[in-house]
Amino acid sequence: MKQSFYRYLMTQRDPNNYEPVAQFANNAFFDQSFPKQSGDYETLTRYLELNGSYLPSMTIFDEAFVNYQESEQA
After folding, report:
1. How many alpha carbons fall within 13 Å on the CB side of residue 49?
2. pLDDT of 10-36, one tens digit each?
3. Do 1 and 19 contact (CB within 8 A), yes or no?
4. Is 55 helix (H, G, I), strand (E, B) or coil?
5. Residue 9, Cβ neighbours under 10 Å: how many?
6. What is the pTM (predicted TM-score) of this model?
7. Contact, 58 vs 49, CB < 8 A?
8. CA nearest 34: which of 63, 1, 4, 2?
9. What was the pLDDT predicted at 74?
10. What are phi and psi of 49, to 5 degrees?
């Protein structure tokens, strides 16, 4: 079964890491409204564009999403 993007993103959490994807993961962890069950790019993009004030650039999401897709194919 395919894991959700949120579940993948939580594997990138590290409070001591200041890389953009790790910071995105750390902040998403505290976002109670994050679409935790979704793996759909469009759904996640819409949510983050409207509610992801903690995400300085959608490029960070795009990078994380590509890594998520690659992890699902492995």
Report:
1. 7
2. 999 999 999 999 999 999 999 999 999
3. no
4. coil
5. 25
6. 0.94
7. yes
8. 4
9. 76
10. -65, -35
Q: Do residues 50 and 62 lie in contact, with contact meaning Cβ atoms separated by under 8 Å?
A: no
Coil, strand, or helix at residue 11?
coil
Radius of gyration of the chain (CA): 11
pLDDT of residue 1: 64
From 33, 5, 4, 27, select the one nearest 15 (Cα to Cα).
27
Q: What is the DSSP letter of 4?
A: P
**Separate counts of helices (H) and strands (E) for the chain:** 4, 0
Residues 40-54: tens digit of each pLDDT:
999 999 999 999 999
**Which stretch of DSSP H or E encloses residue 37?**
none
- Amino acid code (one letter) for 27: N
